[in-house]
Design goal:
By secondary structure, the chain is mainly alpha-helical. Helix content is 72%, strand content 2%. Keywords: Cell membrane, Membrane, Protein transport, Translocation, Transmembrane, Transmembrane helix, Transport.
Length: 271
C-alpha cells in the first residue's frame, strides 16, 4: 500500500507511523546490542572500565598539560584509591545487558535519526526534505562528539573527584558496579544529547518557539549553569573546570548563531 500524504493522514495514522518508528528503532538497538556481545570482553576491560586506571589517556594528558603549564604534578593522577564491587546476585548480568543496550543505542543512533526524519519530513517543505543527509550527518556527528567528550572528559573528571574526595581517612571508597555504570551511562548520554543542542535550537527556531534574542537574553544564566555543572564533575581546580566548560559554552554560542540564521531566513520568507 502506498504511504499516505500528510494531509490524508488521520491522528491514528500518525500514531501508527510513530509506533513503527519506535519498533524499527528498538530492533536496530537490539541488533547492535547483540553485535556488541561478541566484543564484550574488550568493551568492558579496555573501554568502559578504562577510566578507573591511572594509565587512562585523559589522566596522562592532564599530567603532561600540568607540566607544560608549569604546575608540576598538581593535576597529575597517579593513583585512584577505590575498588568496584558487585553486591547483587544478578548485578553483573543486569549490567552486562544494559551496557550492551547502551552501546547498541549509541551505534544505531544514525539509523534512529533516519527514522525520525522520515516521520517529520512530510511536515517540511520540499527544499527542506532534500537536507535529509545533512541532518543525519550533522546530528550524528554532534552526538558522537558529545559521547567522546563525555567519555574522555566528564567520566575521568567524575571518577577522579569521587576517588580523591573523602570525609575521613577512616572511610574507604568501595563503589558498586551499578553506581559506576550509572555514572558512565549518564555522562555519555547527557553529553551526547547536550551536543544536539544546535539541532534542537534549529527546529525550535523554525517553529517560532525560540528566537536568538531569547537565547542571548538568558546567556548569563546558561553560563552560570554550565559553570556549575563543570564545577560539580571536575576536581576543584580552574584548569579542569575550564576544560569541561569551554566546549559546552561553544555549543551554546553555535546554537545562538544557528538561531540567528534561521530567524533571518524566516523573516525574508515572510516579506
Amino acid at each position: 500500500m502506498a504511504k499516505k500524504n500528510l494531509g490524508e493522514m488521520s491522528f491514528l495514522d500518525h500514531l501508527e507511523e510513530l509506533r513503527w518508528l519506535l519498533v524499527r528503532s528498538t530492533v536496530a538497538v537490539i541488533v547492535m546490542g547483540i553485535v556488541t556481545y561478541f566484543f564484550s570482553d574488550y568493551l568492558f576491560d579496555e573501554i568502559i572500565l578504562a577510566p578507573t586506571k591511572p594509565s587512562f589517556f585523559t589522566y596522562v594528558w592532564f599530567c603532561d598539560l600540568s607540566h607544560q603549564l608549569g604546575f608540576a604534578d598538581s593535576i597529575c593522577i597517579t593513583e585512584l584509591n577505590f575498588i568496584i564491587q558487585n553486591t547483587e546476585m544478578e548485578g553483573q548480568v543486569n549490567i552486562f545487558v544494559w551496557m550492551c543496550i547502551l552501546v547498541g543505542f549509541i551505534t544505531s543512533f544514525p539509523y534512529i535519526l533516519y527514522e525520525i526524519w522520515k516521520f517529520i519530513s512530510p511536515a517540511l517543505y520540499e527544499k527542506e526534505r532534500k537536507n535529509a543527509k545533512l541532518f543525519i550527518f550533522s546530528s550524528s556527528l554532534l552526538f558522537f562528539l558529545g559521547v567522546i567528550f563525555g567519555y574522555f572528559v566528564v567520566i575521568p573528571m567524575s571518577v577522579n573527584f569521587v576517588a580523591t574526595f573523602s570525609v575521613s581517612k577512616v572511610v574507604v571508597n568501595q563503589f558498586t558496579i551499578e553506581s559506576y555504570m550509572g555514572m558512565v551511562k549518564t555522562s555519555v548520554l547527557a553529553s551526547g544529547l547536550f551536543f544536539e543542542l544546535p539541532i534542537i535550537i534549529y527546529f525550535l527556531t523554525k517553529l517560532g518557539l525560540v528566537t536568538p534574542e531569547f537565547l542571548r537574553k538568558y546567556w548569563k544564566y546558561a553560563v552560570v549553569i554550565i559553570l556549575i555543572v563543570a564545577a560539580i564533575v571536575t576536581p576543584p581546580d580552574v584548569v579542569s573546570q575550564t576544560i569541561v566548560a569551554i566546549p559546552m559554552l561553544i555549543i551554546y554560542e553555535i546554537s545562538i548563531l544557528i538561531s540567528k540564521i534561521v530567524y533571518k531566513n524566516k523573516l525574508k520568507e515572510n516579506v
